[in-house]
Amino acid sequence: MQFLPLLHASREVQDAVRGLRNQPDVRKFMYTSHEISEAEHQGWIDSQRGNDRQSVFVVMADGQACGVVSLSAINRVHETADWAFYLDASQQGKGMGSLIEFWLLDHAFNTVGLEKLNCEVLETNPAVIKMHQKFGFSIEGVRRKNVIKDGKRIDVVLLGISREEWAIQRPKMLPLMERLKR
Length: 182
Known about the structure:
Elements: E1 2-5, H1 11-21, H2 24-27, H3 38-46, E2 55-61, E3 64-75, E4 80-87, H4 96-111, E5 116-122, H5 126-134, E6 138-149, E7 152-162, H6 163-181
Parallel strand pairs: 4-5
Antiparallel strand pairs: 1-2, 2-3, 3-4, 5-7, 6-7
Helix pairs in contact: 4-6
């Protein structure tokens, strides 16, 4: 598995990312529910040029785009950021999300130099909430009835982890990462 900066990816890979973003089993867990047009997708890519508050990577496996992982709202003063990922529906539930999360945590704390990482998960995605907790994230709050999905208002769960918490949790995750890489 490789992590390719989206802005360095070929047009073909960038187009494949749009396909991933538009999969129904991906969209159901995103804030964006509608099908993303080519123009909207290109606008999103263009918005990242020169944007030092966002960093987006395409997850590549066997030469194919199979997911996206990003840091956003990067704050250099407070050394914080938000993060999110999505994965091709055919890859969900196979451990790839855990490999991505491990990489992102190392990248955020060791490469980018953050001290705190935050994320938001729709209440309708309990598997990802549980996965984040396995990696050492704590639930820090809930934005009640904050998003409309399928005509219903749902909660958004707020999670966070500090550099110190990751340093404690990381060694506990290494055996799992070794098993998943096989």
